[in-house]
Amino acid sequence: MSDTWDWGTSSDGDRAPSTDLRTDIPHPARMYDYYLGGKDNFAADRAAAAKVVELLPSAPAGSRANRRFLGRAVRFAAELGIRQFLDIGTGIPASNNTHEVAQASAPDSRVVYVDNDPIVLAHARALLQGTPQGRTAYVDADFRSPGSILDAPQTKELLDFSQPVALLSVALLHFFPDSTDPFALLDQYKSVLAPGSVLILTHGTGELMSPEVARSIEAVYTASGLNITSRGKAEVLRFFDGMELVEPGVVPVHEWRPDGHEDDRTMTREEIAGYAGVAVRRG
Ligand SMILES: C[S@@+](CC[C@H](N)C(=O)[O-])C[C@H]1O[C@@H](n2cnc3c(N)ncnc32)[C@H](O)[C@@H]1O
């Protein structure tokens, strides 16, 4: 069974065409929403996510740590003076969305959100709120088609690539197997970044947990028809090629410039299933 919702908005505020949410199969955005304690998930998402939580009880805490990293990294970029953000793989709106964090630091920040999941599209209106001085837009497009994102009218209108941009790829690239060459795809986005731009990235890894648990988690995704590709630190570092990592480099998500949150202090490396890093484009 699948549900059809027709209350989405396109980036220019028009009503979007009816959207088939395919609630009968798990979607990464909705599984993540389940980990975060959200309500925008369906039985198939909950069943798959619950299996992951059985294998890795810290998955919800790890997802929250990932969101906190996103907040810290966006604030870092804003403090560098960056006022433009391209957030690919936005996810269902949660607390501290990119525009909220960026515009809290700098109200004139402009944010372009991109996702290809119909449920995120259905929530686009929530992502399009912002300060009067700033702007946000939503592009319904696929990371694997850089042209459809970089050349989208909303992107062209809001982002000036001759000036620094923060490119966000947070908890996205593990959905792409090596056969799709996510390294080359990301390079296409990196190639348009002006000096002073930053790349903000997290990536799922099984490297910090027992190999057996990592394999079982991968099997849950595969059985659900979803790809998930765990990558180790050496591979995650490759995504930053050509850019200069800021301290502390690529580290377990909760260890990237923690701001004292209790959960980041108590979390162990075995509990976190992701690496994080931020890099700057120099000259
Ligand atoms: C785990 S969520 C991460 C959300 C958010 N970036 C965060 O870290 O809090 C991954 C998001 O990537 C999106 N996604 C997966 N494949 C995609 C693709 N090919 N193009 C665009 N977005 C994609 C999913 O729909 C989902 O919303």
What is this structure's SSE topology?
Layout: E1 4-5, E2 19-20, H1 28-35, H2 43-55, H3 59-79, E3 84-88, H4 98-105, E4 110-115, H5 118-122, H6 124-127, E5 135-140, H7 146-150, H8 153-158, E6 166-170, H9 182-190, E7 198-204, H10 211-223, H11 233-238, E8 244-245, E9 251-252, H12 262-266, E10 274-280
Helix pairs in contact: 1-2, 2-10, 3-4
Bound molecules: S-adenosylmethionine.
S-adenosylmethionine binds at residues 28-29, 32, 66-67, 70, 89-91, 114-117, 120, 142-144, 170-172, 175.
Short summary:
The chain is an alpha/beta fold. The chain is 36% helix and 16% strand. Helix 2 packs antiparallel against helix 10 (211-223).
Helix percentage range: 25-40%
Order of helices and strands: EEHHHEHEHHEHHEHEHHEEHE
Named CATH architecture: 3-Layer(aba) Sandwich
Q: Mean pLDDT score, rounded?
A: 92
In percent terms, what proportion of residues is strand?
Answer: 15-25%
Ligands, deduplicated: S-adenosylmethionine
CATH topology: Rossmann fold
Number of domains: 1
- How many extended strands? 10
Specify Rg, calculated over alpha carbons.
18 Å
Uncertain runs are: 1-17
Describe the oligomeric state of these chains in a short phrase: single chain
CATH level 4 superfamily: Vaccinia Virus protein VP39
Give the overall form. globular
Q: Separation of termini?
A: 53 Å
CATH structural class: Alpha Beta
Q: Which structural class should the secondary elements be placed in?
A: alpha/beta
Count of DSSP-assigned helices: 12
